[in-house]
Amino acid sequence: MTDAATRVAAVVAVARDDAHRFTKPVRDEIRLVAGHGIEGDAHAGATVRRRSRFRGTWTEPNVRQVHLLQRELFDELAVEGHEVGPGELGENVTTSGIDLLSLPLGTRLRLGDAAEVELTGLRNPCVQIDRFQPGLMRRMIRRDASGTHRRAGVMAVVVADGVVRAGDPILVVLPVEPHEALPVV
């Protein structure tokens, strides 16, 4: 499909970790499970998995099952003095050829042959980014006349099972208009 509602991009790398560590090791493949997240990843689950997201009950929906980040950010950060590679900022899927941050809420991304995620919001950068590389946190947030812009990627929930590998195509399907900007989650 190549109409105004769809675009094609690609997966650069995939990563997962079974423990709550900031950086995730790159893998040959990851398995996405609908309503759950990434099989074997510490952030997988239908309900909130992180203490930092806990708001009084562990039954709140987990809207952060999958973290996606565009590889193009690595080039921008290199110019600013920070060398970063896939998985190092905690993302599960590193993409190329698509501006993830500009996509609206509810956008669906088909990853490979079958896996599909729905965007739920922008990742809010946290202090762990500066623990990884001092000074990097301020590079992840831009402020200008039009407002605050977070560059730490997007979060999603899994809506269709499937295996995802580096090199897989990404099909972008925008939601019905009017489009709503991604909130910070």
UniProtKB/TrEMBL annotation:
Residue ranges constituting the MOSC domain according to the UniProt record: 24-173
SUPFAM superfamilies according to UniProt: PK beta-barrel domain-like
An annotated Gene Ontology molecular function: molybdenum ion binding
Domain of life: Bacteria
Protein name: MOSC domain-containing protein
